[in-house]
Amino acid sequence: LLLFSSTRGLRSVPSLSQFRRLRYLWINNNKIQDLTFLIKNYYLTELYLNNNELTDISGALKHLCSLQILFLHNNELKKLGKTVKELKGMISLQTLNLFQNPLAYDPDYRLYVIYFLPSVQLLDRKSVTQRERESALHLYNPKRALVMQSIGFGKRADTSLGTTVGSSRCTQPARRPIMPSGINNTRRKAYIFRVPFEDPEDAVLVRATTRSLMEFSSVDWNQAGTCQERRLKNKAEEPLEKLTVQFR
Predict the structure, then answer these.
(1) Domain for residue 193, yes or no?
(2) pLDDT in tens, 86-106
(3) Same domain, yes or no: 230 and 127
(4) Residue 228: burial class (beta carbons within 10 Å; 0-12, 13-18, 19+)
(5) What is the pTM for the complete model shown?
(6) What SUPFAM superfamilies does this protein map onto (predicted)?
(7) Which domain holds residue 218?
(8) Same domain, 218 and 134
């Protein structure tokens, strides 16, 4: 269901609860200040509210979890945090316009929206880039950004959280984890999952040393004598040289 009511100078709109299957709504270029008429329209996927007189959308849009396109540009929205909080539940939101609102003049406005609304792909008519997502992560979650930088190809790189990312050396020397005496090899693996370590890196190191081994051996069979040659020889035959390689 589609409803178009644009450029009519509307200041208020009656409840649209009777149109519960409404999916597309154009109500831009009016003078609307209140959005309570949308309280029952859960199926909306595209909503065009640009060029109105909205000052606050708190409590008016958060139930619209199916929204994919939302135009709110050229209104009077002032509070960036409250506006973004209202949109956080819209996991399908891909296109969002907030420009020409007072909140858009915040110095970190764009990165703030990108970080807290990660599903948005097109913000203010401009595609969100991977570099912008990384910058937003560094700005609003530096600890997670540092962890993400220390991960490569599915495993932790040799970069501790206490060092600067990109440094070739660790500030702390490598050390062996301290384990109680009396634990043999058969019980070592069970001990790892039973006793907590003070340092998580100790647990990782101990776990790495107890992984199953894969072993490959090769022998040059051209040097092995036949049954007849072994019977004719009086002296004991020297054992063949075997090359063994182990992978952990």
Answers:
(1) no
(2) 999 899 999 999 999 999 999
(3) no
(4) exposed
(5) 0.60
(6) Outer arm dynein light chain 1
(7) 214-247
(8) no
